[in-house]
Amino acid sequence: MGILLFLYLIFPLLRKIPEKFALLTAGVLFIGYLSIFFVDYGIYPSNQNVFNCVFWFYMGIIFEIYKDKINKYVGIFSIIASFLLIFIPIPINMDVKTTLSSIFFFIAIYFIFNKIDTRNENVKNNIFIKGIIFSSNLTFPVFMVHHFLEAKVEGSIIRLCKNNFVLSFIITMCLVYIASTFVYFAFNFCKKIISKNRK
Questions:
Q1: Distance between CA atoms of 86 and 74, rounded to whole angstroms?
Q2: What is the pTM of this model?
Q3: Other CB atoms within 10 A of residue 63 CB
Q4: Can you tell me the distance from the alpha carbon of 119 to that of 34, in angstroms, rounded to the nearest whole number?
Q5: Please, how many CA atoms are within 13 Å of residue 63, restricted to the half-sphere of its CB?
Q6: 151 exposure class (CB count in 10 Å sphere: 0-12, 13-18, 19+)
Q7: Which secondary structure element, helix H or strand E, spans residue 34, and what is its range?
């Protein structure tokens, strides 16, 4: 909770930086982020390190500002890069590999689904598209549960899958999705009860 408050306090500064020093700041934060995998900064796990949190927070700001600049070249490169990083056993640090694959995979997914016209009735009524639209409601629940689940079960799943990165990743993400869906419906249920009591 403390790091979240810190991030929101420095948000105005981080929001201003992209106007002049976007790439430079992203590079510095990325180096700081990578350092947590090679330097012992204390008792806190890497996902709670300030370099980690500020880096991903800033990446969200950068994406929101520059998402319209994701053209077909950036999209295709991201698709190829995410495929290689996820499915090909490239001999690099696993944490670095996970970071890069996450970034490219996110950009690739955005590029692909940004091409789908959900205003079209045939597209809108497609069950697959309905699933995607519903899943877009789960962003905050996913944010709430994914670190907890990864910390509690990811190690066991990796051992169960005999260190198969792809299979363990898929199983972990499925568990995150199921847990996030439960949180989403539980939250809406509580919200309806509170609304009825107010009336």
A1: 18
A2: 0.64
A3: 14
A4: 41
A5: 13
A6: exposed
A7: helix 18-35
Q: Give me the helix-helix angle, 18-35 and 2-16, nearest 10°.
A: 140
Place of tokens 């053209």: 71
Token pair belonging to 87: 């499915």
**Residue 104 CB partners (closer than 8 Å, separation 6+):** 77, 78, 79, 81, 82, 85
- What is the torsional sign of CA 15, 9, 46, 51? positive
CA–centroid distance for 85 within its chain = 16
Sign of CA dihedral 76, 67, 2, 55: positive
Distance CA 55, CA 60 (A): 9
What's the one-letter identity of residue 104? F
Is 135 exposed, middle or buried (CB count within 10 Å of its CB: 0-12, 13-18, 19+)? Answer: middle
Distance, CA of 146 to CA of 180 (rounded, Å): 8
Q: How many other C-beta atoms lie within 10 A of the C-beta of residue 39? A: 10
Express each pLDDT in 4-18 by its tens digit: 667 667 767 777 776
Over residues 58-70, the pLDDT tens digits come to 888 888 888 888 8
